[in-house]
């Protein structure tokens, strides 16, 4: 029984997502597709908080494909007014909202088997996985990359200057002179993360060959 058949108890959109992993990833690094992801949420509790919006875009051949983006807002049963000053998303705002299940369907159709890039990726992917769990679905199968971790790989190790334990997206934007105009919107943060990722790749390439293995 193949991987597609084992998922037959799940909805069609999950089966299509799983089937995409039958396609091997490109061996040529420049032909890989990276999906840069960001979520805006009601808080930082992966179990009790919810995703407000998902922003994602693709990098192919070291270029951001601005014609192929994902930008969705999710209808809220859970709402935390204390997080509004951060993301600016109001409960009854002007955004066209969709259900969590429709959002997951759109995201899975968008991400396919591609590599996911995010800043503090464990949080964004964890929030997606929590949403999938509520729908009775397994976790994401994609290879993840974290720009916070990757950035630390570019730093010179010195007894005089010790790297910080964590680098924020603001830290990277300032380091690489990236505009923070659309900061704290899911798509805006995904775009900042994508620009930072491309800058990081240049730095890593100065030290060693670019390969997926060298980024993990």
TrEMBL record:
- Among the record's GO biological process terms, what is one? DNA replication
What keywords sit in the KW lines? Exonuclease, Hydrolase, Nuclease
Described by its record, this protein's role is as follows: DNA polymerase III is a complex, multichain enzyme responsible for most of the replicative synthesis in bacteria. The epsilon subunit contain the editing function and is a proofreading 3'-5' exonuclease.
Q: Which PANTHER family match?
A: DNA POLYMERASE III SUBUNIT EPSILON, PROTEIN NEN2
InterPro entries per the record? DnaQ, Ribonucl_H, RNaseH-like_sf, RNaseH_sf
One CC-aspect GO term: cytosol
Q: Which organism is it from?
A: Maribacter aurantiacus
What is the protein name for this chain?
3'-5' exonuclease
Q: Which GO terms describe its molecular function?
A: 3'-5' exonuclease activity; DNA binding; DNA-directed DNA polymerase activity
Q: Quaternary form?
A: DNA polymerase III contains a core (composed of alpha, epsilon and theta chains) that associates with a tau subunit. This core dimerizes to form the POLIII' complex. PolIII' associates with the gamma complex (composed of gamma, delta, delta', psi and chi chains) and with the beta chain to form the complete DNA polymerase III complex.
Which residue intervals define the domain Exonuclease in the entry? 33-206
- Cite a single Pfam family from the UniProt record: RNase_T
């Amino acid at each position: 029984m193949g991987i597609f058949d084992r998922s037959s108890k799940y909805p069609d959109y999950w089966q299509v997502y799983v089937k995409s992993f039958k396609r091997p990833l490109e061996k040529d690094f420049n032909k890989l597709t990276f999906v840069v992801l960001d979520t805006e949420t009601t808080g930082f509790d992966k179990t009790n908080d919810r995703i407000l919006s998902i922003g994602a875009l693709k990098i192919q051949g070291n270029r951001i494909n601005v014609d192929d983006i994902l930008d969705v807002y999710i209808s809220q049963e859970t709402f935390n007014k204390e997080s509004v000053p951060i993301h600016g998303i109001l409960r009854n705002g002007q955004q066209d909202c969709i259900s969590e299940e429709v959002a997951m369907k759109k995201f899975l159709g968008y991400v396919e088997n591609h590599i996911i890039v995010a800043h503090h990726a464990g949080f964004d992917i964890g929030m997606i996985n929590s949403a999938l769990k509520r729908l009775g679905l397994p976790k994401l199968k994609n290879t993840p990359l974290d720009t916070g971790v990757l950035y630390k790989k570019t730093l010179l190790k010195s007894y005089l200057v010790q790297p910080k334990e964590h680098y924020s997206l603001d830290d990277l934007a300032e380091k690489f002179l990236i505009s923070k105009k659309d900061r704290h919107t899911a798509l805006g943060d995904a775009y900042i993360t994508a620009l930072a990722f491309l800058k990081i790749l240049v730095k890593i390439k100065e030290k060693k060959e670019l390969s997926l293995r060298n980024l993990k």
